[in-house]
Amino acid sequence: MKVAVVDKNGKETGRQVALSKEVFAIDPNDHAVYLDVKQYLANQRQGTHKAKERAEITGSTRKIKKQKGTGTARAGSIKSGLFRGGGRIFGPRPRNYSFKLNKNTKRLARKSALSMKASEKAIIVLEDFTMDAPKTQEFGQVLKSLGLENKKSLIVLGESNNNVYLSSRNLKGTNVITSSELSTYKIMNASSLVLFEGSLETITTNLSK
Predict the structure, then answer these.
(1) What would the DSSP string read from start to end of 85-143?
(2) Is residue 111 domain-shared with residue 192, that is, in the same domain?
C-alpha cells in the first residue's frame, strides 16, 4: 500500500512511501481495540472517590425509637443510610482501576486501529520539517494547508520536536506526540492521522515484532 508524501504546504512532493501490510493492512480485531482503549481509560482514573458509610459519620448511636409497637420499620441508629444525614449504603471506596493486558494484544490493537484509519484513507504522510521557534499561527497554517483546521487530528513525530509541540498546544483538537507515545486510544480518538515521514520506520519496527 503506497501513500503520497506531502509537504507542510499540503502539496505532493512527488514521492511515495509504502505502508507495511503487516501494520496498516491487517484484518482489524475489534475486541483487541476495545480492550486496549478500556485499559487506557482505566489507567487515567485516579480512583480516589470516597463516601462515608454509617460507621464513619458523626452522630448519636442511641436507638431512636422502640423496637416494636410503632407500626413502622425498626431503626437502630440515626446514622442509618435510610435517614437524611446518615451514611451512604455501599458507597464508593478508593480503588485501583488498572488491569493487565498482554503485549501481543496491545500490539494487535494498535495495528488494527492503524489499519482502520488506512482503510478510511484518514492517514496523511507529511514530509519532516522543523520550526525555528514556537509559533502557533504558523503551525495553524500547516493544518489549514492539510485541510485539518476544523478536524480532530493526531500528529506523530519521528523524534521529539519541542518547537512543533509547543506550537500546537493552544490549537483545539490537535494532539502532537512522538511515535513512542502512540496508543490505540489516541489513534481512534482522532479523525485524521498525520504521520511524519521519519516516524514510519519506528512505528513499523515496533509493531512488526
Answers:
(1) T-PPTT------------HHHHHHHHHHHHHHHHHTT-EEEE-----SS--HHHHHHHH
(2) yes
